[in-house]
Description:
- This protein has 241 residues and is an alpha+beta fold.
- Helices cover 19% and strands 24% of the residues.
- Strand 4 (55-59) and strand 5 form a beta hairpin.
Amino acid sequence: MKLTLFTLGRPAPDIRPAAVERQWMDESPQAFAYRCLPLNIANACGWEIGCASAFEAVWDGGAGKEAIRIDSDAGAHELPVSHFGSGVLTFHVNALFRTEPGVNLWAGGPVNRPKDAIQPLAGIVETDWAPYTFTMNWKFTRAGQRIRFEKGEPFCFLFPLLVDLVEASEPEVRDIASEPELDELYKSWSASRSNFNKELGVEGSKARSDKWQKTYFRGNNPDGSAPEIKHRTKVRVPPFR
């Protein structure tokens, strides 16, 4: 799939494949957060855009545009603005993206990267036809708390999305007993999980030595067999060239 970034008379924004690493994950005991494979995949499944300059901002709780104050030595074109009011901080994404027909871009904040007192908002952009740029917006969640973005810190996270696939889904609810093979696999996993958690408290047990169950991480069924469907332990997102 072709994904094109068109520059707009000045250098391209600081866009790169999203990183797996998160500071809070590094700081978790024994970095245990990285044992969660779905978390790792989500962290890196797209591209992130970094801030052109460091800045600080604070919201006084008001609804007007003047309620946000932004402080930095950088030029105005490098900084976000208070454009909408209501405690919303707006970053201009200085590029125009094009995707193939039917493919949109999901644009939001860097996933699994919490930031105190401010929350990223998300949008889906029809980049397969629109000759427009878009903005990335963050909403303050607490007045009077100064927030800071460092130079290069990601403020936007992008990945392609097939909205048609979402709309074409056929959601249903069924009792797992209607799929005997799946039911048996689930029961096997559930029993092994309960037993593993019990053994974690036993000094010298295999569970204590293993520290965590790795069947999902390795892409194995509870009996050790591998499903025929492709399993990922990492995602490799190509850089823009």
